[in-house]
Design goal:
The protein is of the alpha+beta class and 123 residues long. It has two domains: 1-30; 31-111, Sandwich (Immunoglobulin-like). Helix content is 21%, strand content 39%. It is built from one helix and eight strands, in the order αββββββββ. The chain has one helix spanning 3-28; strands at 32-33, 42-44, 49-54, 60-65, 68-73, 79-84, 90-98, 102-111. It has a five-stranded mixed sheet with strand order 2-8-7-4-5, with no helix packed on it. The protein has a three-stranded antiparallel sheet with strand order 1-3-6, with no helix packed on it. The radius of gyration is 22 Å and the shape is flat. The N and C termini lie far apart (77 Å).
């Protein structure tokens, strides 16, 4: 009578162990972008474009947007950074990061962002 609940607890414990240990270990080696990079972003025109993130230590990382490309190797802590040449206003572009996995950031525009606030009569 107690065997069924004990088996369920053992299986539940094993499933939890797999979820906690195996899944993050598989994702650890994947390249990741810093959280400031997302779909529908705007990059400053006429300025060098730094792109950074993390990957497995020593992993080769390639970055491209439009005709601009660059590559680097992740340092011992897994950090990497590529600085691409300045771009003129335009888009939409796709930012692509290639390592053991491939990341894509879509609808990237290059230009200016203006913020304004004031009275309701601003036009």
């Amino acid at each position: 009578m107690f065997l069924l609940p004990l088996r369920c607890r053992i299986l539940s414990g094993l499933a939890l162990l797999v979820a906690v240990v195996v899944v993050p270990a598989a994702a650890w080696g994947e390249a990741r972008l810093a959280t400031v990079f997302a779909d529908h972003m705007v990059l400053q025109r006429g300025r060098a474009v730094p792109v950074w993130g993390t990957a497995a230590a020593g992993e080769q990382v390639g970055v491209s947007i439009g005709k601009r490309t660059g590559s680097t190797k992740a340092d011992a802590a897994g950090r990497w950074k590529v600085v691409l040449e300045a771009m003129p206003a335009g888009g939409p572009h796709q930012l692509v990061i290639r390592a053991t996995n491939t990341l894509k950031v879509s609808d990237v525009l290059v230009g200016e962002v203006w913020l304004a606030s004031g009275q309701s009569n601003m036009a």
